[in-house]
Amino acid sequence: MLAGESGTVIKNWGGKLTVCLVYPNHYATAMSNLGFQAVYSLCNSFPDIVCERAFLPPAVELKEYQKSGSRLVSLESQRPLSDFDVLAFSVSFENDYLNIPAIFDLAGIPPFASERDASFPLVMAGGAALFLNPEPVAELLDLVCVGEGEAILSPLLDFLRAQGSAARAELLGKAAQLPGIYVPSLYEITYDNVGVAEIRSLADAPSRVKRVWDSDFNASVVASTLFTPGTEFSDMYLIEVSRGCPRGCRFCAAGFIYHPFRQRSLELLKKEAERGMERKERIGLVGAAVSDYRDLGELCRFISEKGGKVSVSSLRIDALDVYLLDILHSSGHKTVALAPEGGSQRLRDLIKKDLTEEQILGACDTLIGRDILNLKLYFIIGLPTETEQDLAEMVLLIEKIRQRVIAAAKQNRRLGSVLLSVNPFVPKPFTPLQWCGMEALASLEKKYCYLRRAVGSLSNVKIQMESLREAFLQALLSRGDRRLAQFLVKAHQEGSWKRAAKELHLDTETLVTRMIPLDEILPWDSIDGGERSRLVTEYERAFQSQSA
After folding, report:
1. Cis link prior to 136 (omega < 30° from 0)?
2. How many angstroms separate the CA atoms of 393 and 136, rounded?
3. Closest Cα partner for 396 from 344, 468, 469?
4. Residue 204, burial from CB neighbour count under 10 angstroms (0-12, 13-18, 19+)
5. φ, ψ (nearest 5 deg) of residue 128
Protein backbone atom coordinates (compact mmCIF):
# COMPACT_ATOMS: atom_id res chain seq x y z
CA MET A 1 0.00 0.00 0.00
CA LEU A 2 1.05 3.59 -0.46
CA ALA A 3 2.36 5.25 2.67
CA GLY A 4 2.87 8.66 4.18
CA GLU A 5 6.28 10.27 4.60
CA SER A 6 6.38 8.90 8.14
CA GLY A 7 6.19 5.36 6.83
CA THR A 8 2.69 4.57 8.11
CA VAL A 9 0.08 3.17 5.76
CA ILE A 10 -2.41 5.88 4.85
CA LYS A 11 -5.07 3.76 3.15
CA ASN A 12 -6.18 0.21 3.84
CA TRP A 13 -9.25 -1.44 2.35
CA GLY A 14 -8.71 -5.00 3.48
CA GLY A 15 -5.03 -4.89 2.56
CA LYS A 16 -5.73 -4.14 -1.11
CA LEU A 17 -4.30 -1.41 -3.34
CA THR A 18 -7.17 0.92 -4.24
CA VAL A 19 -7.31 2.61 -7.63
CA CYS A 20 -9.92 5.05 -8.88
CA LEU A 21 -9.95 5.16 -12.66
CA VAL A 22 -11.05 8.67 -13.59
CA TYR A 23 -12.38 9.70 -16.98
CA PRO A 24 -12.36 13.52 -17.23
CA ASN A 25 -15.61 13.63 -19.16
CA HIS A 26 -19.13 12.33 -18.73
CA TYR A 27 -20.16 8.76 -17.96
CA ALA A 28 -21.77 8.09 -21.34
CA THR A 29 -18.63 9.22 -23.16
CA ALA A 30 -16.38 7.04 -21.02
CA MET A 31 -18.53 3.95 -21.47
CA SER A 32 -18.18 4.30 -25.25
CA ASN A 33 -14.38 4.17 -24.87
CA LEU A 34 -13.01 0.66 -25.34
CA GLY A 35 -9.60 1.62 -23.94
CA PHE A 36 -11.16 2.83 -20.70
CA GLN A 37 -13.05 -0.44 -20.34
CA ALA A 38 -9.88 -2.44 -21.00
CA VAL A 39 -7.88 -0.64 -18.30
CA TYR A 40 -10.72 -1.04 -15.80
CA SER A 41 -10.91 -4.79 -16.48
CA LEU A 42 -7.15 -5.24 -16.36
CA CYS A 43 -6.86 -3.51 -12.98
CA ASN A 44 -9.65 -5.59 -11.52
CA SER A 45 -8.09 -8.82 -12.77
CA PHE A 46 -5.59 -8.58 -9.88
CA PRO A 47 -7.01 -10.17 -6.71
CA ASP A 48 -5.29 -7.66 -4.42
CA ILE A 49 -6.40 -4.53 -6.29
CA VAL A 50 -9.74 -2.75 -6.03
CA CYS A 51 -10.44 -0.53 -9.04
CA GLU A 52 -13.48 1.74 -9.16
CA ARG A 53 -14.55 4.52 -11.53
CA ALA A 54 -15.30 8.22 -11.37
CA PHE A 55 -16.44 10.71 -14.00
CA LEU A 56 -17.01 14.40 -14.53
CA PRO A 57 -20.62 15.07 -13.54
CA PRO A 58 -23.01 16.44 -16.19
CA ALA A 59 -23.45 20.23 -16.19
CA VAL A 60 -26.65 20.17 -14.11
CA GLU A 61 -25.13 17.90 -11.46
CA LEU A 62 -21.90 19.90 -11.52
CA LYS A 63 -23.75 23.02 -10.42
CA GLU A 64 -25.32 21.08 -7.55
CA TYR A 65 -21.90 19.83 -6.45
CA GLN A 66 -20.51 23.34 -6.47
CA LYS A 67 -23.52 24.79 -4.67
CA SER A 68 -23.59 22.17 -1.91
CA GLY A 69 -19.84 21.66 -1.56
CA SER A 70 -20.30 17.91 -2.00
CA ARG A 71 -17.27 15.79 -2.85
CA LEU A 72 -16.97 13.69 -5.99
CA VAL A 73 -17.27 9.97 -5.18
CA SER A 74 -16.59 6.73 -7.01
CA LEU A 75 -19.36 5.02 -8.93
CA GLU A 76 -19.08 1.60 -7.29
CA SER A 77 -18.75 2.24 -3.53
CA GLN A 78 -19.54 5.98 -3.38
CA ARG A 79 -16.24 6.65 -1.61
CA PRO A 80 -14.55 10.07 -1.89
CA LEU A 81 -11.73 10.13 -4.43
CA SER A 82 -9.33 11.28 -1.72
CA ASP A 83 -9.79 7.89 0.01
CA PHE A 84 -8.05 5.99 -2.79
CA ASP A 85 -4.36 5.10 -2.96
CA VAL A 86 -4.15 5.99 -6.65
CA LEU A 87 -6.12 8.25 -8.97
CA ALA A 88 -5.54 7.11 -12.55
CA PHE A 89 -6.78 9.50 -15.25
CA SER A 90 -7.58 8.01 -18.65
CA VAL A 91 -7.36 10.83 -21.21
CA SER A 92 -8.04 10.23 -24.90
CA PHE A 93 -8.48 13.82 -26.07
CA GLU A 94 -6.45 16.94 -25.33
CA ASN A 95 -9.52 19.11 -24.70
CA ASP A 96 -10.30 16.91 -21.68
CA TYR A 97 -7.17 18.34 -20.03
CA LEU A 98 -9.43 21.26 -19.11
CA ASN A 99 -11.57 18.97 -16.95
CA ILE A 100 -8.73 17.61 -14.81
CA PRO A 101 -8.57 20.68 -12.52
CA ALA A 102 -12.37 20.43 -12.18
CA ILE A 103 -12.04 16.82 -10.99
CA PHE A 104 -9.42 17.85 -8.42
CA ASP A 105 -11.65 20.68 -7.20
CA LEU A 106 -14.66 18.38 -6.81
CA ALA A 107 -12.50 15.85 -4.97
CA GLY A 108 -10.98 18.40 -2.58
CA ILE A 109 -7.47 17.62 -3.86
CA PRO A 110 -4.90 20.34 -4.70
CA PRO A 111 -4.39 20.47 -8.49
CA PHE A 112 -0.60 20.81 -8.54
CA ALA A 113 1.52 17.79 -7.65
CA SER A 114 3.90 20.04 -5.71
CA GLU A 115 1.03 21.06 -3.38
CA ARG A 116 0.02 17.50 -2.48
CA ASP A 117 1.58 15.67 0.43
CA ALA A 118 1.48 11.94 1.13
CA SER A 119 -2.03 12.16 2.62
CA PHE A 120 -3.37 12.57 -0.92
CA PRO A 121 -3.60 9.83 -3.55
CA LEU A 122 -0.78 9.24 -6.00
CA VAL A 123 -1.99 10.78 -9.28
CA MET A 124 -1.08 9.21 -12.59
CA ALA A 125 -2.48 9.39 -16.12
CA GLY A 126 -2.38 7.57 -19.42
CA GLY A 127 -4.22 7.46 -22.72
CA ALA A 128 -3.65 8.61 -26.29
CA ALA A 129 -3.43 12.31 -25.40
CA LEU A 130 -0.61 11.55 -22.94
CA PHE A 131 1.28 9.45 -25.55
CA LEU A 132 1.44 12.59 -27.65
CA ASN A 133 2.15 15.45 -25.26
CA PRO A 134 1.73 15.22 -21.49
CA GLU A 135 3.40 18.58 -20.83
CA PRO A 136 0.29 20.80 -20.44
CA VAL A 137 -0.77 18.64 -17.46
CA ALA A 138 2.72 17.55 -16.32
CA GLU A 139 2.70 19.73 -13.20
CA LEU A 140 -0.68 18.27 -12.18
CA LEU A 141 0.52 14.64 -12.24
CA ASP A 142 2.89 12.50 -10.20
CA LEU A 143 3.59 10.13 -13.07
CA VAL A 144 2.55 9.51 -16.66
CA CYS A 145 2.17 6.17 -18.48
CA VAL A 146 3.74 6.57 -21.91
CA GLY A 147 2.49 3.67 -23.97
CA GLU A 148 -0.08 0.91 -24.03
CA GLY A 149 -1.81 -0.35 -20.90
CA GLU A 150 -1.16 -4.05 -21.53
CA ALA A 151 2.60 -3.45 -21.44
CA ILE A 152 2.71 -0.85 -18.64
CA LEU A 153 0.04 -1.59 -16.06
CA SER A 154 1.08 -5.00 -14.74
CA PRO A 155 4.68 -4.05 -13.83
CA LEU A 156 3.54 -0.65 -12.54
CA LEU A 157 0.85 -2.11 -10.29
CA ASP A 158 3.26 -4.79 -9.07
CA PHE A 159 5.71 -2.01 -8.22
CA LEU A 160 3.12 0.05 -6.34
CA ARG A 161 1.94 -2.93 -4.28
CA ALA A 162 5.54 -3.71 -3.29
CA GLN A 163 6.39 -0.23 -1.98
CA GLY A 164 5.12 -0.78 1.55
CA SER A 165 6.11 2.28 3.59
CA ALA A 166 8.15 4.04 0.90
CA ALA A 167 8.03 7.84 1.04
CA ARG A 168 6.47 9.62 -1.97
CA ALA A 169 9.77 11.07 -3.26
CA GLU A 170 11.49 7.70 -3.00
CA LEU A 171 8.57 5.98 -4.73
CA LEU A 172 8.64 8.41 -7.66
CA GLY A 173 12.40 8.07 -8.04
CA LYS A 174 12.07 4.31 -8.33
CA ALA A 175 9.02 4.57 -10.62
CA ALA A 176 11.07 6.62 -13.11
CA GLN A 177 13.20 3.51 -13.70
CA LEU A 178 10.22 1.49 -14.96
CA PRO A 179 9.65 1.15 -18.71
CA GLY A 180 7.23 3.76 -20.04
CA ILE A 181 6.95 5.76 -16.80
CA TYR A 182 7.51 9.51 -17.00
CA VAL A 183 7.85 11.39 -13.70
CA PRO A 184 7.50 15.11 -14.60
CA SER A 185 9.02 16.38 -11.32
CA LEU A 186 12.32 14.74 -12.29
CA TYR A 187 12.72 16.99 -15.35
CA GLU A 188 13.80 20.60 -15.24
CA ILE A 189 12.56 22.77 -18.11
CA THR A 190 13.94 26.16 -19.10
CA TYR A 191 12.36 28.46 -21.65
CA ASP A 192 13.31 31.18 -24.09
CA ASN A 193 11.00 33.92 -25.30
CA VAL A 194 8.82 31.55 -27.33
CA GLY A 195 9.40 27.89 -26.51
CA VAL A 196 11.53 25.37 -24.67
CA ALA A 197 15.24 26.14 -24.39
CA GLU A 198 16.38 23.03 -22.50
CA ILE A 199 15.03 19.81 -20.95
CA ARG A 200 17.27 18.38 -18.23
CA SER A 201 16.58 15.10 -16.44
CA LEU A 202 17.34 14.98 -12.72
CA ALA A 203 18.65 12.18 -10.48
CA ASP A 204 18.59 8.88 -12.37
CA ALA A 205 15.62 9.68 -14.60
CA PRO A 206 16.20 8.78 -18.28
CA SER A 207 16.87 11.68 -20.63
CA ARG A 208 13.95 10.48 -22.75
CA VAL A 209 11.20 8.05 -21.74
CA LYS A 210 10.66 5.34 -24.33
CA ARG A 211 7.12 4.61 -25.39
CA VAL A 212 6.12 1.06 -24.45
CA TRP A 213 3.92 -1.06 -26.73
CA ASP A 214 2.26 -4.46 -26.51
CA SER A 215 4.52 -6.90 -28.35
CA ASP A 216 2.30 -9.95 -27.73
CA PHE A 217 -0.84 -8.80 -29.47
CA ASN A 218 -2.41 -12.26 -29.55
CA ALA A 219 -2.09 -12.91 -25.83
CA SER A 220 -5.51 -11.36 -25.29
CA VAL A 221 -8.19 -9.38 -27.07
CA VAL A 222 -9.63 -5.99 -26.16
CA ALA A 223 -13.41 -6.13 -26.28
CA SER A 224 -16.51 -4.79 -24.53
CA THR A 225 -16.70 -5.69 -20.85
CA LEU A 226 -19.21 -3.10 -19.62
CA PHE A 227 -22.62 -2.74 -21.22
CA THR A 228 -24.36 0.56 -20.61
CA PRO A 229 -27.70 1.52 -22.19
CA GLY A 230 -27.99 4.92 -23.78
CA THR A 231 -24.35 5.24 -24.85
CA GLU A 232 -23.18 5.62 -28.44
CA PHE A 233 -22.29 1.95 -28.97
CA SER A 234 -24.73 0.36 -26.54
CA ASP A 235 -26.31 -1.73 -29.31
CA MET A 236 -23.11 -3.57 -30.21
CA TYR A 237 -20.25 -5.66 -28.87
CA LEU A 238 -16.95 -3.95 -29.71
CA ILE A 239 -13.81 -5.89 -30.64
CA GLU A 240 -10.41 -4.36 -31.44
CA VAL A 241 -9.07 -6.15 -34.54
CA SER A 242 -5.85 -4.17 -35.03
CA ARG A 243 -3.85 -1.32 -33.53
CA GLY A 244 -2.06 1.45 -35.35
CA CYS A 245 -2.07 2.08 -39.08
CA PRO A 246 0.36 1.00 -41.80
CA ARG A 247 -0.35 3.97 -44.07
CA GLY A 248 1.68 6.73 -42.44
CA CYS A 249 -0.46 9.72 -43.43
CA ARG A 250 1.62 12.74 -42.45
CA PHE A 251 -1.08 14.50 -40.41
CA CYS A 252 -2.31 11.49 -38.40
CA ALA A 253 -0.82 10.42 -35.09
CA ALA A 254 -2.29 6.89 -35.04
CA GLY A 255 0.25 5.50 -37.49
CA PHE A 256 3.17 6.86 -35.48
CA ILE A 257 2.33 6.56 -31.77
CA TYR A 258 0.88 3.05 -32.19
CA HIS A 259 3.71 1.87 -34.42
CA PRO A 260 4.22 -0.92 -35.39
CA PHE A 261 0.90 -1.84 -36.96
CA ARG A 262 -0.38 -5.03 -35.29
CA GLN A 263 -3.22 -7.40 -36.18
CA ARG A 264 -4.89 -10.03 -34.05
CA SER A 265 -5.22 -13.58 -35.29
CA LEU A 266 -8.40 -14.58 -37.10
CA GLU A 267 -9.05 -17.50 -34.76
CA LEU A 268 -8.76 -15.30 -31.67
CA LEU A 269 -11.22 -12.80 -33.14
CA LYS A 270 -13.66 -15.53 -34.20
CA LYS A 271 -13.78 -16.84 -30.64
CA GLU A 272 -14.32 -13.34 -29.28
CA ALA A 273 -17.04 -12.67 -31.85
CA GLU A 274 -18.86 -15.83 -30.75
CA ARG A 275 -18.71 -14.64 -27.14
CA GLY A 276 -19.92 -11.25 -28.25
CA MET A 277 -22.90 -12.64 -30.13
CA GLU A 278 -24.10 -14.22 -26.91
CA ARG A 279 -24.57 -10.64 -25.62
CA LYS A 280 -25.30 -8.56 -28.71
CA GLU A 281 -26.44 -9.29 -32.26
CA ARG A 282 -24.21 -6.57 -33.73
CA ILE A 283 -20.41 -6.83 -33.60
CA GLY A 284 -18.50 -3.56 -33.95
CA LEU A 285 -14.98 -4.00 -35.36
CA VAL A 286 -12.61 -1.37 -33.99
CA GLY A 287 -9.22 -0.08 -35.12
CA ALA A 288 -7.58 2.94 -36.71
CA ALA A 289 -7.24 0.94 -39.93
CA VAL A 290 -10.00 -1.69 -39.88
CA SER A 291 -9.95 -1.98 -43.68
CA ASP A 292 -6.29 -3.00 -43.54
CA TYR A 293 -6.98 -6.00 -41.33
CA ARG A 294 -5.75 -8.93 -43.44
CA ASP A 295 -8.69 -11.27 -42.69
CA LEU A 296 -11.48 -8.72 -42.55
CA GLY A 297 -13.61 -10.38 -45.22
CA GLU A 298 -13.28 -13.82 -43.62
CA LEU A 299 -14.07 -12.47 -40.15
CA CYS A 300 -17.18 -10.70 -41.38
CA ARG A 301 -18.26 -13.81 -43.27
CA PHE A 302 -17.91 -15.83 -40.07
CA ILE A 303 -20.00 -13.35 -38.05
CA SER A 304 -22.67 -13.26 -40.75
CA GLU A 305 -22.88 -17.05 -41.01
CA LYS A 306 -23.28 -17.27 -37.23
CA GLY A 307 -26.29 -14.96 -37.47
CA GLY A 308 -24.58 -11.78 -36.34
CA LYS A 309 -24.41 -8.33 -37.88
CA VAL A 310 -21.25 -6.33 -38.54
CA SER A 311 -20.43 -2.66 -38.01
CA VAL A 312 -17.25 -0.76 -38.90
CA SER A 313 -16.42 2.88 -38.25
CA SER A 314 -15.01 3.72 -41.68
CA LEU A 315 -13.56 2.02 -44.74
CA ARG A 316 -10.35 2.64 -46.63
CA ILE A 317 -11.21 3.95 -50.09
CA ASP A 318 -8.65 1.79 -51.89
CA ALA A 319 -9.38 -1.37 -49.87
CA LEU A 320 -13.08 -2.04 -50.34
CA ASP A 321 -13.97 -5.72 -50.12
CA VAL A 322 -17.09 -6.37 -52.20
CA TYR A 323 -18.17 -9.31 -50.04
CA LEU A 324 -17.72 -7.15 -46.93
CA LEU A 325 -19.97 -4.50 -48.44
CA ASP A 326 -22.66 -7.09 -49.07
CA ILE A 327 -22.46 -8.14 -45.42
CA LEU A 328 -22.61 -4.52 -44.24
CA HIS A 329 -25.68 -3.98 -46.39
CA SER A 330 -27.36 -7.11 -45.06
CA SER A 331 -26.41 -5.98 -41.53
CA GLY A 332 -28.50 -2.86 -41.99
CA HIS A 333 -25.67 -0.44 -42.69
CA LYS A 334 -27.32 2.56 -44.29
CA THR A 335 -24.26 4.82 -44.21
CA VAL A 336 -20.59 4.13 -44.91
CA ALA A 337 -17.85 6.61 -44.04
CA LEU A 338 -14.92 7.34 -46.36
CA ALA A 339 -12.00 9.69 -45.74
CA PRO A 340 -10.55 11.49 -48.76
CA GLU A 341 -9.19 14.07 -46.23
CA GLY A 342 -7.57 16.34 -48.82
CA GLY A 343 -9.94 18.10 -51.19
CA SER A 344 -7.44 18.27 -54.06
CA GLN A 345 -4.92 15.85 -55.49
CA ARG A 346 -2.10 18.21 -54.52
CA LEU A 347 -3.10 18.18 -50.86
CA ARG A 348 -3.72 14.43 -50.81
CA ASP A 349 -0.16 14.03 -52.06
CA LEU A 350 1.15 16.45 -49.43
CA ILE A 351 -0.40 14.47 -46.56
CA LYS A 352 0.59 11.14 -48.18
CA LYS A 353 -2.98 9.95 -48.48
CA ASP A 354 -2.08 8.04 -51.66
CA LEU A 355 -5.53 8.39 -53.20
CA THR A 356 -6.58 9.68 -56.60
CA GLU A 357 -9.90 11.20 -57.56
CA GLU A 358 -10.49 8.17 -59.77
CA GLN A 359 -10.14 5.87 -56.75
CA ILE A 360 -12.45 8.02 -54.64
CA LEU A 361 -15.18 8.07 -57.27
CA GLY A 362 -14.66 4.37 -57.94
CA ALA A 363 -15.20 3.60 -54.25
CA CYS A 364 -18.38 5.65 -54.25
CA ASP A 365 -19.61 3.78 -57.35
CA THR A 366 -18.88 0.46 -55.63
CA LEU A 367 -20.85 1.47 -52.53
CA ILE A 368 -23.76 2.82 -54.55
CA GLY A 369 -23.74 -0.36 -56.63
CA ARG A 370 -24.29 -2.29 -53.39
CA ASP A 371 -27.32 -0.10 -52.62
CA ILE A 372 -25.48 1.91 -49.95
CA LEU A 373 -26.69 5.36 -50.89
CA ASN A 374 -25.72 7.36 -47.81
CA LEU A 375 -22.07 8.38 -47.82
CA LYS A 376 -20.19 10.22 -45.10
CA LEU A 377 -17.03 11.94 -46.30
CA TYR A 378 -14.26 13.30 -44.06
CA PHE A 379 -12.34 16.34 -45.28
CA ILE A 380 -9.66 18.53 -43.69
CA ILE A 381 -9.35 22.23 -44.41
CA GLY A 382 -6.47 24.49 -43.47
CA LEU A 383 -3.79 22.00 -44.45
CA PRO A 384 -0.38 23.62 -44.98
CA THR A 385 -0.17 25.51 -48.32
CA GLU A 386 -3.94 25.16 -48.98
CA THR A 387 -5.27 27.64 -51.55
CA GLU A 388 -8.64 28.67 -52.96
CA GLN A 389 -7.98 26.35 -55.90
CA ASP A 390 -7.72 23.38 -53.53
CA LEU A 391 -11.10 24.28 -52.03
CA ALA A 392 -12.60 24.66 -55.48
CA GLU A 393 -11.38 21.15 -56.37
CA MET A 394 -12.99 19.84 -53.17
CA VAL A 395 -16.32 21.33 -54.17
CA LEU A 396 -16.08 19.77 -57.67
CA LEU A 397 -15.31 16.37 -56.14
CA ILE A 398 -18.30 16.66 -53.80
CA GLU A 399 -20.57 17.58 -56.71
CA LYS A 400 -19.42 14.54 -58.70
CA ILE A 401 -20.14 12.25 -55.76
CA ARG A 402 -23.54 13.89 -55.19
CA GLN A 403 -24.52 13.35 -58.82
CA ARG A 404 -23.77 9.65 -58.50
CA VAL A 405 -25.85 9.33 -55.33
CA ILE A 406 -28.81 11.21 -56.86
CA ALA A 407 -28.76 9.11 -60.03
CA ALA A 408 -28.74 5.85 -58.04
CA ALA A 409 -31.41 7.11 -55.64
CA LYS A 410 -33.75 7.95 -58.53
CA GLN A 411 -33.18 4.55 -60.09
CA ASN A 412 -33.86 2.79 -56.78
CA ARG A 413 -36.72 5.15 -55.95
CA ARG A 414 -35.42 6.05 -52.52
CA LEU A 415 -33.41 8.86 -50.98
CA GLY A 416 -29.64 9.00 -50.82
CA SER A 417 -27.42 11.60 -49.20
CA VAL A 418 -23.88 12.89 -48.86
CA LEU A 419 -22.84 14.01 -45.37
CA LEU A 420 -19.66 16.08 -45.25
CA SER A 421 -17.65 16.15 -42.03
CA VAL A 422 -15.22 19.06 -42.37
CA ASN A 423 -12.54 19.61 -39.74
CA PRO A 424 -9.61 22.04 -39.54
CA PHE A 425 -6.06 20.76 -39.59
CA VAL A 426 -4.60 20.47 -36.07
CA PRO A 427 -0.85 19.76 -35.88
CA LYS A 428 -0.10 16.69 -33.75
CA PRO A 429 3.14 15.70 -31.98
CA PHE A 430 5.11 12.78 -33.43
CA THR A 431 3.76 13.36 -36.94
CA PRO A 432 5.71 14.80 -39.89
CA LEU A 433 3.49 17.91 -39.79
CA GLN A 434 4.10 18.60 -36.08
CA TRP A 435 6.24 21.63 -36.96
CA CYS A 436 3.42 23.28 -38.95
CA GLY A 437 1.10 25.81 -37.38
CA MET A 438 -2.67 25.71 -37.45
CA GLU A 439 -4.21 28.22 -39.83
CA ALA A 440 -5.52 31.42 -38.20
CA LEU A 441 -9.16 31.28 -37.13
CA ALA A 442 -10.20 34.25 -39.28
CA SER A 443 -8.88 32.53 -42.39
CA LEU A 444 -10.51 29.22 -41.49
CA GLU A 445 -13.83 30.95 -40.89
CA LYS A 446 -13.70 32.37 -44.43
CA LYS A 447 -13.08 28.89 -45.81
CA TYR A 448 -15.99 27.50 -43.81
CA CYS A 449 -18.25 30.22 -45.22
CA TYR A 450 -17.07 29.45 -48.75
CA LEU A 451 -17.92 25.76 -48.34
CA ARG A 452 -21.31 26.53 -46.82
CA ARG A 453 -22.16 28.73 -49.78
CA ALA A 454 -20.80 26.27 -52.33
CA VAL A 455 -22.35 23.02 -51.12
CA GLY A 456 -24.57 23.83 -48.16
CA SER A 457 -27.59 24.62 -50.31
CA LEU A 458 -27.25 21.57 -52.57
CA SER A 459 -30.00 19.00 -52.29
CA ASN A 460 -28.98 15.65 -50.76
CA VAL A 461 -25.88 17.25 -49.20
CA LYS A 462 -25.41 18.09 -45.52
CA ILE A 463 -22.34 19.61 -43.98
CA GLN A 464 -21.02 19.24 -40.42
CA MET A 465 -18.19 21.42 -39.22
CA GLU A 466 -16.17 21.07 -36.05
CA SER A 467 -16.21 24.06 -33.75
CA LEU A 468 -13.26 26.29 -34.65
CA ARG A 469 -13.00 27.34 -31.03
CA GLU A 470 -12.66 23.71 -29.92
CA ALA A 471 -10.15 22.98 -32.67
CA PHE A 472 -8.07 26.02 -31.69
CA LEU A 473 -8.03 24.86 -28.06
CA GLN A 474 -7.06 21.35 -29.17
CA ALA A 475 -4.12 22.77 -31.13
CA LEU A 476 -3.02 24.85 -28.14
CA LEU A 477 -3.01 21.81 -25.86
CA SER A 478 -1.53 19.52 -28.52
CA ARG A 479 1.63 21.58 -28.89
CA GLY A 480 1.84 23.41 -25.53
CA ASP A 481 4.48 23.07 -22.81
CA ARG A 482 4.04 22.61 -19.07
CA ARG A 483 3.52 26.31 -18.47
CA LEU A 484 -0.05 25.62 -19.62
CA ALA A 485 -0.81 23.87 -16.31
CA GLN A 486 -1.38 27.26 -14.68
CA PHE A 487 -3.63 28.17 -17.60
CA LEU A 488 -5.73 25.02 -17.13
CA VAL A 489 -6.22 25.66 -13.43
CA LYS A 490 -7.04 29.32 -14.03
CA ALA A 491 -9.51 28.38 -16.79
CA HIS A 492 -11.40 26.22 -14.32
CA GLN A 493 -11.40 28.95 -11.70
CA GLU A 494 -12.60 31.59 -14.16
CA GLY A 495 -14.99 29.35 -16.07
CA SER A 496 -13.43 30.56 -19.33
CA TRP A 497 -10.18 29.55 -20.99
CA LYS A 498 -10.14 32.77 -23.03
CA ARG A 499 -10.37 34.88 -19.88
CA ALA A 500 -7.68 32.74 -18.26
CA ALA A 501 -5.35 33.28 -21.21
CA LYS A 502 -5.93 37.03 -21.05
CA GLU A 503 -5.24 37.23 -17.31
CA LEU A 504 -2.04 35.20 -17.68
CA HIS A 505 -0.95 37.23 -20.74
CA LEU A 506 -0.78 34.03 -22.77
CA ASP A 507 -0.34 34.63 -26.50
CA THR A 508 -2.44 31.70 -27.65
CA GLU A 509 -2.50 32.85 -31.28
CA THR A 510 1.27 32.62 -31.60
CA LEU A 511 1.44 29.28 -29.78
CA VAL A 512 -1.15 27.77 -32.11
CA THR A 513 -0.23 29.23 -35.50
CA ARG A 514 3.55 29.59 -35.52
CA MET A 515 5.78 27.39 -37.64
CA ILE A 516 8.32 25.65 -35.41
CA PRO A 517 11.91 25.46 -36.74
CA LEU A 518 13.08 21.88 -37.33
CA ASP A 519 15.99 22.28 -34.93
CA GLU A 520 13.92 23.72 -32.04
CA ILE A 521 13.44 21.67 -28.85
CA LEU A 522 9.84 20.49 -28.71
CA PRO A 523 7.89 20.40 -25.42
CA TRP A 524 7.34 16.64 -25.83
CA ASP A 525 11.04 15.87 -26.47
CA SER A 526 11.21 14.20 -23.05
CA ILE A 527 9.22 11.40 -24.71
CA ASP A 528 10.97 9.04 -27.11
CA GLY A 529 8.23 8.23 -29.58
CA GLY A 530 10.38 7.07 -32.49
CA GLU A 531 13.00 8.33 -34.88
CA ARG A 532 12.91 12.11 -35.22
CA SER A 533 14.98 11.83 -38.40
CA ARG A 534 12.18 9.83 -40.02
CA LEU A 535 9.67 12.58 -39.23
CA VAL A 536 12.01 15.26 -40.58
CA THR A 537 12.51 13.28 -43.78
CA GLU A 538 8.75 12.92 -44.28
CA TYR A 539 8.24 16.62 -43.53
CA GLU A 540 10.80 17.60 -46.15
CA ARG A 541 9.36 15.19 -48.70
CA ALA A 542 5.89 16.67 -48.20
CA PHE A 543 6.98 20.14 -49.22
CA GLN A 544 9.55 19.08 -51.80
CA SER A 545 6.76 17.39 -53.72
CA GLN A 546 4.89 20.69 -53.77
CA SER A 547 7.74 22.59 -55.37
CA ALA A 548 8.62 19.86 -57.89
Report:
1. no
2. 38
3. 344
4. exposed
5. -55, -40
Q: How confident is the model at residue 13 (pLDDT cuts 50, 70, 90)?
A: low
Answer whether 17-210 and 216-333 agree in fold.
Answer: no
**What pTM value is reported for the model?**
0.92
CB contact at 8 A, 328 and 336: yes
For the chain, the domains span 17-210, 216-333, 334-464+491-548
Per-residue confidence (pLDDT) for residue 546, from 0 to 100: 63
Please state, in angstroms and rounded to a whole number, the distance separating the CA atoms of residues 363 and 342. Answer: 16
- Give the contacts of 58 (CB within 8 A, at least 6 positions apart): 26
Tell me the fold of 17-210.
Answer: Rossmann fold (3.40.50)
- Buried b or exposed e, range 22-45, using 16+ CB within 10 angstroms: bbbbbbebbbebbbbbbbbbbbee
**Separation of alpha carbons 488 and 94, rounded Å:** 12
Count other C-beta atoms under 10 Å from residue 67's C-beta.
8
Q: Which fold has domain 216-333?
A: Transcription Regulator spoIIAA (3.30.750)
- Distance (Å, rounded) from C-alpha 72 to C-alpha 56? 9
Q: Are 5 and 167 in contact (CB under 8 A)?
A: yes
Q: Which CATH class is domain 334-464+491-548?
A: alpha beta
pLDDT band at 477 (very low <50, low <70, confident <90, very high): very high
CA-nearest of 215, 266, 216 to 239 is 266
Q: Within 10 Å of residue 535's Cβ, how many Cβ atoms?
A: 21
Selection from 518, 433, 526 nearest residue 481 by Cα? 526
Rg (CA), the chain: 24
